[in-house]
Structures are given as structure tokens and as C-alpha cells.
Amino acid sequence: MQKQFDWKRYVIVFFITLGLFLTALYISNYFGNKKLNQLQGIQDKISIDILSSETQYSLLSELSCKNISGSILSGELGELGNKLEWSQRNIGATDEVNYLKKYYSLLEIKDYLLSKKISSKCGIKSAFILYFYTTAENCSECEKQGIALSALRDKYPELRVYSFDYSTDLSAVKAMIHIYKIQDTKLPALVIDDELLTGFYSIEELESRVKESFKLQEIKPIDSKKNAK
Amino acid sequence: MNILLGIVYVFIFLSVYVQVFFLVTFLEKRKYILIRTKPIELKEYPGVTIIVPCYNEEKTIAGTIDSLLNLDYPKDKLQIMIVDDGSKDNTWQAIQKFEKYENVKVFHKENGGAHTAINLGLKKLETPFVGRLDSDSYVDSQALKRIMTYFDDKETMAVAPSIIVKSPKNILQGAQKAEYDMAVYNKKMLAFLGGIHVTPGPFSIFRKKVFDELGPYKKAHNTEDQEIALRMQEHHYKIEHCPDACVYTITPNTVKKLYRQRLRWIYGFIRNAIDYKKLFFRKKYGTIAFFTLPSGIISVLSVIFLFIMLSCNFINFIIHKIIQINIVGFHYLFLSSNFDLFFFNTKTIVFISIILYTSVVTSLLLGRKMLEGKFRVSFDIFYFMIIYSVIAPFWILKALVNAVRSKESSWILEREVKMAE
């Protein structure tokens, strides 16, 4: 007795399996988009925060520093940074993610400039770190530096870390790279208080520099007052 | 990396395909699954001989024979042949005690492997039906009658029973119980499509004609029960499965023993599949050619591939964690882990894996429904998933390595013989 080859069964099963796979793909995309929307939402909020801070700064610059608190700076940049980094790893470097990343870089620069202005005028305790890394090539030192900076930021919530992907195709980021003379062969690179550091720096080294940076910025406004006299 | 991910998707697709294939068959044929709970009577009782090959089984052999003597089948129609395959312990003394029964015959021979012991029995066969029962198994009293009903179909040449792990003593045996339950379902579905590739040692019953026409058992890489089924498939002999004929088997109780058993099974499967490679994708061989054998090979390859992939990922994860601990110290590690739904992985592969695991659990539950009459969720299922995910890749990998190696050596041997000529 020869057996019948029931090809219909194989075709039907193929399409059912394909259907299951497409459903999985659809669900995955659905959640991916939800995440991107969430990121977009955070960015919008930050951009409003910054605009509001800038306006507040302009209004108050005529007056005393008394009314400007540290809280006028947006507190969600760090969260956005983490989520963007995660998205790039897990959703992939899609157009949307790259767009959001550019926008994020821009917000960082604006935030950086604003907070620098405020702290120099009002002497608010603040430490900035500019951090340049790359995703274009495999950079294990960058990965380590990123971990150290995250931990440092957790330890000092008032520390602001502005991270920039060297390979971001955005003129403002290119300008930052140009200003601080960052070379792609010397990544990761850090700028702490206008001083350029290249290669990996441990959490302890950064901590001592950051503490130093705190003091400097506390003193600066007094210096400028003295100079004014 | 993308190519590797592509291969992962192909393997998972094929694995899901196999499960869907079974499920579609189940939905189509479920009303033909025959489960009898009460004793039945047959119109006629053809003569059956059960051959029990044994080697160093002094402790379990008595239980096995007792279960055969308790079979609900006319004693004058049931012959029992116990063949001691040169045991080194007291098996021979243990089986001689059964000589007092009229329908029991005992034989002793030099050690030569299970297949030689059964073949000795086959030579002395006088009944139109023959079965074997391995000496690590016990048979339910109704099993033989239920099996014999399948031979009403003149085309049926062999019938396999449902093998069950009776009262598992530890987690490992529990995991095997879940696996065996799933196998009952898979086997029945394969039977519907004529694609059974193994007539297991515990209590598969054959027409004598099979051995008269196709010859006796072969060594077949110590998996003679797979080889005979493939030989039957090659000759278009119909193999059935009787889900309500229960045989209880003692399963390995340690990882080491289980590893050895599975190494033999998988190695045997690979080697037999190679020996019968001409069956692959040949239309005239039907399900065995397009489904059973290819899906077996796919599962061997995909388990190995996915295991290597997952191990690499796991090692990466550990390395990453070590770097993290080195940089920030252990106490910071859990400091910043704020819970946020955002960081839940929603990659396609996650959902596909959920589909795959769900389909496996479904198979298992359907098997259990067939055996016990209800869907029963138990910890066994969980043990099965965890234990097999971790240890099965090792025996599969080793089996594949062994299969490739021995092929190589026999090839070298052939070359040497040719050169000598």
C-alpha cells in the first residue's frame, strides 16, 4: 500500500504558522511604536521644560538669583537618555530612534548651555560632564565609561551628564565635537569643567574631579564679583 | 549577527510548524481517538507470543513477568518467552522460577545485545502475533486486548502502546513523565498520518508476517526498535498506536543514567536516519518522508543551534555584569534598577518564543487529556521545560558528534580496505 502525500496539510500548516509569526511581529511592532511614542512624549515635555526655563531665566536675569532654583532644569533628561540607549539596543537603530536621538542631543546642548548660564550667574551647585562615545564601531571602553557615568549620576543626582554619540549626524553635535577638539580615535572622551579627558576613567577618579568641579563653581561667582569691584 | 538571527527564526519557525502540524491533525481527527476505560471482550483471541529479553535485571524481571501473567487474555493463547542474554547477575535464577507456568518458556544465551535475544525468540515463534516487553516495564492487564482490536484492520502490521512513567520518585522522573505524556499525543497524531518511526521496546505487538517478510531485528546502533519501524515504513507496512494500552516503564532516576539513555536514542535516531536516508522527501513514503524524519533532524539541529546561541548570550550577559561590578562595585549594581515597563523586552523573538512554549505545553496537556481524561496542569510540566532546556542539548550535541565521528572512522576503514586491495 503506497501512501498518499497530503500536500494540502503541509500548505495549510505553513500558512497557520506564518500567521502566528506575523501576529508576533505585529505585537512586537505595536509595543515598539508605543515605546517610541512614549519617548516622543518625554522629549516634548523636556523641550517645554527647557523653553520654560529659558523664559524664566530671561525674566529673572534682570532680578536676583534668589528666585532661580536648581529645579528649573528638566529632571527627565537622564531617564530619556537611558530609554533611548535601551531602544537603540533593543528596537534597533531605526529612522525613528535616530531621529529621537538627534533631538535628544539638541535638547542636551540647550540644557547644558542654560544650566551653565544659570550656575555661572547664580552660583548654583552644579557639575557638568560632557561625554563623547561612539556606536559606529565596537568601543568596549565606551561601554565601561557609560556604566561608570550611570552609577555616578545615581550617586549624585545633581550631576548632569550630557552624552553625545560621535557618529550623530547633526551640526550642533559636530560643533560641540569641534569646540572640544574630540577625535574619534580617542573615545571615550569626557569634558569636565572645560578639561578634556580621553580614555576610560574609573568611578573614583571621576568622583574626585566632580567634587573639585563643585568647589570651583561655587567660587566662580564670588571671583567674578571681586573682579567687578 | 543578522544571519544568525535569521537562522534562529528559521529553526523556531520549523519548530512551531511541527507543533501546528500536530494540532491541525488533532483538530481534524480527534473524534477517532479511541479511549476505553472498561474491560472489553474480543470476537476471537489470536495467539500472541511476548518475548522478554533481559540482561542483568534480577531485581525487576519478576515484576515484568508477573504483569504479563496478569494480562487479561486467554492463557492458552498467550506465550511468554524469557530470554536471558548472558546476564552476569542472578537473572537466570530469577527467571527459572517462572518455568512452572505452562505458557512460559525460558532461554539462556551468550550475551549478544537485545536484538539477538529477541531474534532467538522469533526463531522459535509459533503464534501469528508477537510482541516484546523490555524488562524495565510493566504492562496494564487490559493492554493486550485493546491492542489486538487494531489488528481487525488487515493492513495493520504493528501496534505501539502508550508508555507511561508510573509514580515518579523525583523531579527528574517527573519531568520525564511530562515528556512521555506528550509523546503519547505526538505518537497518536503520527499514527493517524502513517508516520510512526519507532515501535518501542515496551510492548509493541507485530504480526509474525513482518519478520517473515522483512527479516529479524538488526543491531541498528542499539536502537533496533527504531530500525524495524523504519524498515516497515520502507515497505509501506502500517503501524498503529493504541493510546489506551498502557505500559508502565521505569525511567532513569539520575541525570547520568538519563544522559546515557538519551545519547543512545538520539545517536540511534541519527544513524538510522542516515541508513534510511532514501526515505527523505520521497512522495511514496508519505508522512515519514516529509514530516517525521525531517522534523527529527530539525529538532536535533535547532536544539544545538539555539543552545549555542543562548549560551553565547548568557556568557555575554555574565561578562557584562562582571564588567559592571568591576567598575561600580557590587553595591551599586541593584541601586539604579528602577522598575519601568518600558524596559520589558518586546522583540519579535520574545513573542515567537512564547508561541513555541505555549504550543509545547498544549501538546503535553492534550497527551494528558488522552491518558487521564482531563487537562491537568502540574509542576511536572515546569520541570520538563526547565530540565530539558538545560540538559537535553548536551546529549543531543554528543550524539551528533558521535554520529559524525563514527561515520568518519568507518569511511577511513573503507578507504584502508580499498587501499589494501
What does this structure look like?
The complex is a heterodimer of chains A (229) and B (421). Chain A has 229 residues and is an alpha+beta fold. Chain A has two domains: 7-62 and 70-120, no CATH class; 125-229, Glutaredoxin (3-Layer(aba) Sandwich), CATH 3.40.30. Chain A is 65% helix and 10% strand. Chain A contains six helices and four strands. Chain A has a four-stranded mixed beta sheet with strand order 2-1-3-4, sandwiched between helices. In chain A, a hairpin with a 2-residue loop joins strand 3 and strand 4 (195-198). The model of chain B has no long low-confidence stretch (mean pLDDT 90). Chain B has a single domain (1-327, 342-421), classed as Spore Coat Polysaccharide Biosynthesis Protein SpsA, Chain A. By secondary structure, chain B is of the alpha/beta class. Chain B is built from twelve helices and eight strands. In chain B, 55% of the residues lie in helices and 13% in strands. The N and C termini of chain B lie far apart (49 Å). In chain B, helix 6 (171-192) packs across helix 11 (348-372) and helix 10 (287-328) crosses helix 12 (379-420). Chain B has an eight-stranded mixed beta sheet, with helices on both faces.
Estimated helix fraction of chain A: 55-70%
What fold name stands as the CATH topology of chain B? Spore Coat Polysaccharide Biosynthesis Protein SpsA, Chain A
Number of helices of chain B: 12
What distance separates the N and C termini of chain B?
A: 49 Å
What's the overall geometry of chain B? globular
Structural class of chain A: alpha+beta
DSSP strand count of chain A: 4
Mean pLDDT of chain A comes to 76
- Assess the beta-strand content of chain A as a share of residues: 5-15%
Spatial ordering of strands, largest sheet of chain A: 2-1-3-4
Average the pLDDT over all residues of chain B and give the rounded result: 90
CATH superfamily of chain B: Spore Coat Polysaccharide Biosynthesis Protein SpsA, Chain A
What is the level 1 CATH name of chain B? Alpha Beta
Radius of gyration of chain A, in Å, reads 24 Å
Low-pLDDT stretches of chain B are none
